[in-house]
Amino acid sequence: MCCLFAALVLLGPRAAIFFWWLFEPVRWGATFDTVIWPLVGFLFVPWTTLMYVLVFPGGIDTLDWVWLGLAFLVDLMSWSGGAYGNRGRMRGTAC
Questions:
Q1: What are the extents of the domains in the chain?
Q2: Residue 95 has pLDDT above 60, yes or no
Q3: What is the band of 52 on the pLDDT scale with cuts at 50, 70, 90?
Q4: What is the pLDDT of residue 79?
Q5: Higher local confidence (pLDDT), 28 or 4
Q6: Rounded CA gap, 58 and 37, in Å?
Q7: Which residues are CB-contacts of 41 (< 8 A; sequence separation ≥ 6)?
Q8: How does DSSP assign the chain, residue by residue?
Q9: What CA–CA distance (Å, rounded) separates 11 from 5?
Q10: Which of 38, 54, 72, 86 lies 20 to 30 Å from 24, alpha-carbon distance?
Q11: What does pTM read for this prediction?
């Protein structure tokens, strides 16, 4: 079950980015001027990238920053959750 959840967290937003880019390339083109930022977002902060594409077309207002912040926190939790979960596997550490 944990491996399935990890696969969904890691591949879920990246697959969503890929398919959304395939089906709505005009929206992605309107959101990003270059291909570098979506690629960096795809690799490192996929939830934030998805939220940015979702809120950007109307302009980013006050509530949009809250949604972007929450998406960034989800990205940070996905990066740090693996380290916390594997802390007992390191040799020489007392738990």
A1: 2-80
A2: no
A3: very high
A4: 80
A5: 28
A6: 19
A7: 17, 48, 49, 52
A8: -HHHHHHHHHHHHHHHHHHHHHH-HHHHHHH-SSSHHHHHHHHH-HHHHHHHHHHGGG---HHHHHHHHHHHHHHHHHHHHHHHHTGGGSTT---
A9: 10
A10: 72
A11: 0.74
